[in-house]
Design goal:
- By secondary structure, the protein is mainly α.
- 13% of the residues are buried.
- The protein starts with 5 loop residues before the first helix and ends in a 7-residue tail after the last helix.
Length: 164
């Protein structure tokens, strides 16, 4: 008979309002956070896949010796043009990673993900040929990204990257 009692339903509604509603709100935000994390992970994986695809292009051009520590000075015109195109592809990938994954105040897993991109950029900036082509490669790129990679290049090489 308590199911017909109005006082029972009133107390039940208070319990639901005070316990159930906050719990539902918590679950909603928790699920939203999980969804955002999954989207961030997917974006990171897509960028990593793109970098792996880029490395395949590097492997397909062994004559350019793009993974060696020193640049070749004896490249033909064709080889110089291929190198420039490959570096343009790399800058475009780095810019995409910067726009998608970088924020000045990253923490946690986002910061760890970004550090891998920062490491890639620093590694390439240490290459003499990439470094000296940066002013040309950065023309028309996102200005914040261009400033970021110039700073990395200067830290890695100790020289200022000047724009032409």
């Amino acid at each position: 008979m308590f199911l017909l009692d109005a006082a029972f339903w009133e107390v039940s509604s208070y319990i639901v309002a005070t316990l159930g509603l906050p719990f539902a709100i918590f679950l909603f935000f928790h699920e939203q956070r999980k969804e955002r994390d999954a989207e961030d992970e997917e974006a990171y994986q897509l960028l990593q896949n793109a970098y792996n695809d880029f490395l395949k292009i590097v492997l397909d051009n062994p004559d350019l010796r793009l993974r060696s520590a020193k640049a070749r000075n004896d490249l033909s015109d064709n080889q110089r043009e291929r190198t420039l195109i490959i570096f343009e592809m790399l800058i475009a990938l780095f810019e995409r990673a910067y726009i998608v994954a970088y924020e000045p105040d990253l923490t946690g897993i986002a910061q760890k993900r970004w550090h891998s991109w920062d490491d890639y950029m620093r590694e390439w900036c240490r290459r003499e040929d990439f470094y000296y082509l940066l002013p040309q490669l950065l023309r028309g790129e996102d200005e914040e990204f261009a400033s970021y990679i110039r700073r990395l290049a200067e830290e890695e090489r100790g020289d200022l990257v000047t724009t032409p």
